[in-house]
Amino acid sequence: MRKQKVSSAVIRRLPRYYRHLNELHLSGTVRISSSALGKSMGLTASQIRQDLSCFGEFGQQGYGYNVEKLRGEISDILGMNSGHTAVVLGAGNLGRALIENFHFELSGFHLAAAFDVAPGIVGTVMSGVPIYHIDTLEGYLAGHPTSVGVLTVPRRVAAETAARLVAGGVRGLWNFTNIELDLRGSDVVVENVHFADSLLALSYMISE
Amino acid sequence: MRKQKVSSAVIRRLPRYYRHLNELHLSGTVRISSSALGKSMGLTASQIRQDLSCFGEFGQQGYGYNVEKLRGEISDILGMNSGHTAVVLGAGNLGRALIENFHFELSGFHLAAAFDVAPGIVGTVMSGVPIYHIDTLEGYLAGHPTSVGVLTVPRRVAAETAARLVAGGVRGLWNFTNIELDLRGSDVVVENVHFADSLLALSYMISE
């Protein structure tokens, strides 16, 4: 069903489509027109039709979209029903915030384990997630094929930890370290979370 | 110098321009052509010229851009030299991660204080930032005009805390709570950090 190369702008909008459709579904909305969906997302109706046309035929002339069906189709496109797994590297403040408060399962991920070096943390269980010593990472990955490594380690060990995850066969890195990872020669995808970019956009908007 | 309405796509790219120019400057690069800058950012030269033309005339035909000068101009446009201040609401895992590890000053912000309710935290100083009781927020804001409130409180108190910040005169909210804040009737800008959108984009990319 998926067609050719999809632009990164469309990829960035897909999670927002999912989020809005999920909210509509939870609020009991059964169907919605592309113009109404667009209005709630700050997009035009034609933009929405064009975005979705990258993936096939959705909606019906004169009816609009069935909210639950489109939500399901977008969750499939996003890979939310693919049984993805994740491990967190570094159970410090940020790692702990993600383990305890971020709902990986709502994005289709099972958070299976976390790794750290601190004696007080290794061997404990945090919100149901076992914390192992980083020295056991290779053995763990060999026995538990893992989709994504969540990098919340200190900057000085970011590159080394990323390399170990790549060698262990993960397909993606969710990188919170603010280090640009150089993974040339691998097929591993890196998604960077740049807090500073977000704060600077806010800085711009309050300075206008 | 700033012209009319700038699209949100351009606003989103500005921090990336700043980040790339800063790295170029730190690595000793004095000047760069729009095509070389574009290549390092995955944009075309004409896209870059078009983006920057929203804000005035930069660069010189045949010379390109002076890296340090353009970096300085973009930092001005982003409001990085406006003396912005911030306070963190909620010094739990995520709040603490931001207080201890995020360099607000590199984005032009002074992180002046944080607020929480936990007896073990209130009254302490975390990485130089004093932690006050949330009950003192109104008094603090009255005496210390604050640009941005960083919302890392639990979801159930997110809306109430946002309303108190707005009443206290902040100009922007950096919202990590994953709650859609309804600030109709105020001029306060909300910048949402949606971790799930980022993870879902990664999910898509590893599912291709």
Structural commentary:
The structure is a homodimer of 208-residue chains. The model of chain A has no long low-confidence stretch (mean pLDDT 92). The first copy, chain A, has helices spanning 8-26, 34-41, 45-53, 67-77, 93-101, 137-143, 158-167, 195-207; strands at residues 31-32, 65-66, 84-89, 109-116, 125-126, 129-133, 148-151, 172-175, 189-192. In chain A, the strands form 2 sheets. A 7-stranded mixed beta sheet of chain A has the order 5-6-4-3-7-8-9, with helices on both faces. By secondary structure, the first copy, chain A, is of the alpha/beta class. The first copy, chain A, is 41% helix and 18% strand. Chain A contains 8 helices and 9 strands. Chains A and B meet through helix 1, helix 5 and helix 8 of A and helix 1, helix 5 and helix 8 of B.
Helix-strand blueprint:
Two copies of one chain form a homodimer.
Chain A: H1 8-26, E1 31-32, H2 34-41, H3 45-53, E2 65-66, H4 67-77, E3 84-89, H5 93-101, E4 109-116, E5 125-126, E6 129-133, H6 137-143, E7 148-151, H7 158-167, E8 172-175, E9 189-192, H8 195-207
Helix pairs in contact in A: 1-4, 2-3
